[in-house]
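Note to self: keep these together.
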Amino acid sequence: MSASAVRALFATLAWALCALGCGERAPADARAQLVLWHSYRGAEEAALLAALRRFEATRPDLRVRAVSIPYDAFPNKLGVAVPRGNGPDLFVFAHDRVGDWAETGIIEPIGFWADEALIDRFFRTTVSPLVYRGQLYGLPLAFKTLALYYDPGLVPAPPATTDDLVAAAKAARAADPQVWGLGYEVDSLYFHAPWLHGFGGAVYADEDDTVALDSPASAASLAFVRRLLVEEKIIPEEATSALVTALFNDHHLAFVISGPWFKGELAGNDRWAVAPLPTVSETGQPARPFLGVEAVLMSGHSRHKRSAFALMTFLTTDAEATHRLLEGSQLVANQAPYDDPRAREDAFLRAFRGQVEHSVSLSNRPHMRRVWTPMKTALSQAIVHGQDPLEALRDAAATIQRATE
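Structure:
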């Protein structure tokens, strides 16, 4: 074969290969890629994706791939992927797993990078849940806690104290026997927490895993709710979340203890308001619910840690938090966005902004998961069935302690 024929053959082969591959494939993206996992939907997801595009505009060397993971499957997927060097560089999740993930190296401590100016963006109560064994493991994006919803057609104003709450609830019930005074799940520790802390009780006694639930203060909180249920008769029996929602939307319930998600159940009901929980009259202390924090956390196996931290700080700027507050309907962890005139005019945002200052961080200890079921039993036994509160709490504390041995 002549030299010219060989050259022609190679040219033909090169053209064919290009037609099969090169000409049909987009040019390779030379930018480094960050992968972020989240479980957002709807407006929250749209707000997050818009923020990521804004970040990419400031960092032409980076691109961010957001991956939506179902919430229930999130911890398991993370636990399988990250130790094998797979999974995300960053992810967004609730803080209650921080202790587990810190112990197993799933998440990276970020205190080395975080300075005081960064931390000052946030309500301090939203930062402490991300600290485990003295190390900071994430930056807060949003929070959830409980507040007091009320029907302005049944009660004229939110109560300042528990005495006021009981009086208003009894007055509404006296005016119409079909109206109940207060609704929430009385056998749930999460919903009982405002009274537990308001009476001076606590789940843990110290920084260790010493359970402090079996205290006179904790017992007093159970006795208080027992009185509301049995003596004052302002709480309906078997107050499930479905029953509470139905009663409130039918204007047959004066007060509800619930979180920001309850707003979504009030479609078609334009007669409601929300305020911070009242002060406990017996102690003079505010009722303080648990505080849950949604945070952006860094994988301990990320190969782009410095760039990942840059994205963390961008997502938690005051400007981005304001977008999420006003466009994504998130209760953001930053303080400054609540000073925006649009936020100040929103009574819903004002109420939860006020409540976050009077809350107790839900423990991020792995041990905490052993508390919920024994406490559900104790609350049911003492409040519904009349067992001595201190005895019920001692039974719960003993069960919890045995589970940790």
